[in-house]
Amino acid sequence: MWLIFKKEILELLRDRKTLFFMIALPLLVFPLIFGGMFYFTGKAMTTSQTESLTYAVSGAQYAPELMAALESVDSLARIDLSGNLSDKDTVAGIISRNEVDFVLQIPNNFSNDVGQSGQITLKLVLNDAQLNSVQVRIQEVTDKIESMNQRNAFANLGVSESIQAAMLDPIIVQKVNLADAREQTGAIFGGLIPYFMFILCLQGAMLPAADIGAGEKERGTLETLLLSPIDRYKIVLAKFLTIATAGLTSALVTVISMGIWALVISVQMPMGPVVEFISAIDGFDFLLVFLMLIPVVATFASLLLALSIYARSFKEAQGYMSPLMIVVFLPIIVTLIPGIELKGVWAWIPLTNVALAIKELVKGTMDYVQLIAIFGSSVILAGALLGFCVYWFKQEKVLFR
Length: 401
Prior knowledge:
Layout: H1 2-14, H2 16-50, E1 53-58, H3 64-71, E2 76-78, H4 88-96, E3 102-105, H5 114-117, E4 123-126, H6 134-157, H7 161-168, H8 181-189, H9 193-219, H10 221-227, H11 232-268, H12 272-280, H13 283-291, H14 293-310, H15 314-321, H16 324-335, H17 352-363, H18 371-393, H19 397-400
Parallel strand pairs: 1-2, 1-3
Antiparallel strand pairs: 3-4
Helix pairs in contact: 1-11, 2-9, 2-11, 3-6, 8-12, 8-17, 9-11, 9-14, 9-15, 9-16, 11-14, 11-18, 13-17, 14-15, 14-18, 16-17
């Protein structure tokens, strides 16, 4: 068995394409892709939210103080337009022709005296498909005027500041959160980590699996291997260990890559909370996160080997394996549903239990007793799939199907 395992590993190391998916992809390509995506997305959103916008106003004469406050905002530039800016169709045409970015319609009852005017409605007409935070910018201006008008109204009524606060916000709900910073941050990121790990483990094991099963059929080397005086189950175990080694290597490189890039980002960018969150996870939990990938890799390796042995050709094997990428999403999505925890039946569902366990480890709330169910269910599933592989290897149709 170990002789076959050594042979398969040597052939694996000679395949540059496989090495790329096992090492280069998780170490360099994925971090660069996702890092670049987050960087450019953040930069684009920041630019769009701070870019200078043009606007026109209907009823400006009714609110001189509001107009003065708007004109003091550097990122807003007023343009005087002719036409009835209170008419819906006229304003729609102006916006569609990009003459201005938005139109502010001020009613004729606008007044800073709340007791006289009552509640006032300002209409902001715009194409809100752009991420330029128009309403947020206008709200910042109106909030200041609103606060001043409220204070003046209460002062005219002779209401003290404490009563003012009670009238504006009569009931306050004070939240006392017993969750620490690690648990809160882990609840957010803990569900995303298995997503990347599972995909990379599967990607790293797919090519070796397709090659050492269906690939050997096409090359005609499987017949020679089956004629050798080696038990069929040993051949299956050797191939299984080869695929598992590829998957674990990809997983290990992924964990190392995540650590390196997290360190680089923390040095280059002010990410104190992220650094504190990572430093709160002790070495034992980091080790368990990696060990949690063993049942995942065992499941993937046995399933991929079964598909590869069943397939007639390398191309057919790839056709069987490609949909697994979609299948892997399902157990991860389940972990993001509120109320789903690593308890009861969920602790026995393969892949889902591992994703939940990684989430709990990151949060620091792991129930280590559930490790029995996690590894037990994975052993049962992987054993059943390996049993199919051994059965199929003992059939002549493994070659002639």
